[in-house]
Amino acid sequence: MSDYNEYVTAINKIFDDISKIKAGWNNVDNNNYIEKIEEYRQLVTTEAEALKNTATNVSGLEALGNDW
Where in the sequence is the domain holding 10, given as residue range(s)? Predict the structure, then answer.
């Protein structure tokens, strides 16, 4: 699985779990904290696209220093 796919899978799982938690809690303070976390969704989506574009651009090149 590529780095991009792993990243997207993990992020989708996190936000899915957050939405389940939010639905189960009716405490105003906790829901406010969850909403603050959800504000990062757009940033995460943007970074995922950057990772996807980076992976596409270097897919045919050998990474330097990656000898393990």
Answer: 3-54
